[in-house]
Design brief:
Blueprint lengths: L3 H12 L7 E3 L3 H6 L6 E12 L4 E13 L9 H18 L12 E3 L6 E3 L2 E13 L1
Parallel strand pairs: 1-2
Antiparallel strand pairs: 2-3, 3-6, 4-6, 5-6
Helix pairs in contact: 1-3
Length: 136
């Protein structure tokens, strides 16, 4: 179940135009911030799992954080920054929704990310939630 991380990263790197190798585990986010890495960037976080009682199944939870530099963002008026994120958000969703990380999984589905978007120093951080189900 934990081996999905490199598969998800590879899928995003292959399917989302414009990220140019900037699909990384969430642990690399602080370094990307310090180094002012180019954007857009995608950061993948494993958020644990949920056992589905009586089904012999487990949903693994994932968050993909879209990091994008935009001069149009403010905490008071996030609409413009979100508009800037729309194409990459759509690409991430298209890449992962209904895609199977491997033959033992059901297709990935959209889920609540349980993390709020953030704005900091001209960057927007937009979390997208997904689940991958495996039946044992």
């Amino acid at each position: 179940m934990l081996d999905d991380l490199p598969r998800i990263q590879a899928r995003l790197a292959d399917q989302v135009k414009g990220v140019h190798g900037r699909v990384k585990p969430i642990g690399d986010l602080e370094e990307a911030i310090r180094a002012a890495d180019p954007t857009p960037g995608l950061f993948v976080l494993y958020r644990g799992y949920r056992v589905l009682d009586g089904l012999g199944a487990v949903d693994t939870r994932w968050i993909v954080v879209v990091r994008l530099r935009t001069a149009r963002q403010t905490a008071d008026a996030p609409g413009a920054a979100l508009e800037d994120c729309a194409p990459i958000v759509e690409a991430v969703m298209s890449a992962l929704i209904d895609w199977c990380p491997d033959e033992a999984r059901h297709p990935m589905a959209l889920a609540n990310p349980e993390v709020t978007p953030g704005w900091r120093d001209g960057y927007v951080y937009l979390p997208l939630g997904f689940t991958a189900r495996r039946v044992y």
